[in-house]
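Review form for a predicted model. The reviewer records the input and the model, then writes brief findings.
Reviewer: anonymous (R2)
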Amino acid sequence: MMRSVGSGGGGGDALHTVNNSTPFDNNLSVGVAPSSSSVSFLEDAYLDRINTTAIGVGHLKKLYLPPFRGPFFVSPDIFAWIVPSGITALLVFGTVYYTGSQQSTAGLVSLFTLLGIAFVSSLLVGITDPGVYPRLGHGERDPLESCTHLPICKICNMRRPRRAAHCYSCGVCVLEHDHHCGVIGGCVGSRSLRWFTLYLLSISSASAMGVYWITMSLLHPPANSDRPTATELMKQRARHQNQASLQTAAHIFLLIFIGNIVLLVGGMGLYYVYLMSTDTTRREAQGKALKTNLDSYVHGIEGNVCTRFTFNIRSVLNRLYRSFFMVPQSMLVSRGVTCSEMKPLAKGREDPEPEGLFE
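Model under review:
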């Protein structure tokens, strides 16, 4: 799908074309498109907004690391990431300590690869732009002020696009806001949903490997071990109540703990894959926000019914591809347009207060 939007620079009438096609796009029969007057929210001039100042990032902290291009945007509760990471490290140590001697090198490499992906993706949730719709900078005019059907964020003092919501932890509005995850310390939005989903899938896959290893170690202990199997332990339970193996108890504890992680985190990971494949956020799935999708207008009544009640693998792959590889550009990083080139505020309009904001 092609769309033309304003360049956002000082050129006035200059336009550029954005190509949203993906490897899974197929030619859809498009019905009568709605007029711009009846569906004014289809205007997307706000996509060209750029605000690199401290006002735009809210409570996020801008961090520059020399080896990397561009800044990181650190979440205010980034240190919460230490707790789940520490628990994961302890569980990995316990699993490898009791079952590592029975595993192949390939199995251990696979486990630590999954854990590495989990650590990196969870960290990226807390240090990358989640899809911030920045506050108005000094001298900037709200591009959506004429769209009276859009809600006004009373904190940011501007109209926000559809599917955006205010994150009180980050102090800014976030496009396609899903939730702010206090467990790993990061906001989940249009640009960070892929990292959050990748974290859930990788940590649940690594946990599933741990459950399998522990279960096999319980049923088939090493040949040089005098530890009884779970079956033998149950047979001896009546005569040897106080002789339960410490290693077996540790195995059972790890099995229960990691098994719960597989069920909870794995289930959540599959749920988020479903949300990504249907282009839906958790807020929208729970009825907290109104989801507006262009497809519901351009397919017509017949097309909408077919899309709703039939499974289209191409559509699913297309949405997953877009969620992972076609995230919107950050509005907090300069792309050749500065705040000084933006439209001035209307006469008599006050600048937003930057209280409580820091860089």
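Findings: Residues 1-43, 293-310, 336-359 have pLDDT under 50 and may be disordered.
Further findings: The radius of gyration is 26 Å.
Recommendation: see findings above.
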